[in-house]
Amino acid sequence: MTLNGFLVVGALIFSIGAMGVLIRRNAIVMLMSIELMLQGANVTLAAFSAYLDDQAGFVLVIFSLTVAAAEVAVGLAILVALSRVYPVVNVDQLDSLRG
Questions:
Q1: Are 49 and 30 in contact (CB under 8 A)?
Q2: What is the domain partition of the chain in residue ranges?
Q3: Residue 87 has what DSSP assignment?
Q4: Which residue, 14, 20, 24, 57, has fewest beta-carbon neighbours within 10 Å?
C-alpha cells in the first residue's frame, strides 16, 4: 500500500471518530470515538514515519497509545462513578454537574 492509501485510511478512521463525537450523545460511544480519532492520527503518523524512514514517528505512536490507554482507564472510571450517582450515560442529561 502506498502512502496515499495509508493517509486515506487514517483520514477515514479520524472522520468516523469525529462524526461519532459530534453526533452521538452517549458517553461511552464518545470515548470510543475519541479513541478512533487518536488511532486515525496514529495511522497517519506511522505512515509518514515509514515513508520518511524515520523511527521518531513510531516512538510517538507508542507514546500516543500509552496516553490513550490511560485516558480510557480514567474516562471509564469516571463513567462508573457517575453511573452510581446518575443512572444515565447520555451527556445531555448530565448538565446538573455544572455546579
A1: no
A2: 3-91
A3: S
A4: 24
What are the tens digits of pLDDT across the range 12-70? 999 999 999 999 888 888 889 999 999 999 999 999 999 999 999 999 999 999 999 99
Q: Could you tell me the fold of the domain covering 3-91? A: Helix Hairpins (1.10.287)
**pTM score of the predicted model:** 0.82
What amino acid is encoded at 91 in this protein? V
The angle subtended at Cα 14 by Cα 42 and Cα 17, nearest 5°, is 120
Q: The cell 486515525 sits on which residue?
A: 40
86 three-state secondary structure: coil
> Helices H, strands E: what count in the chain?
3, 0
What are 28's three cell numbers? 461511552
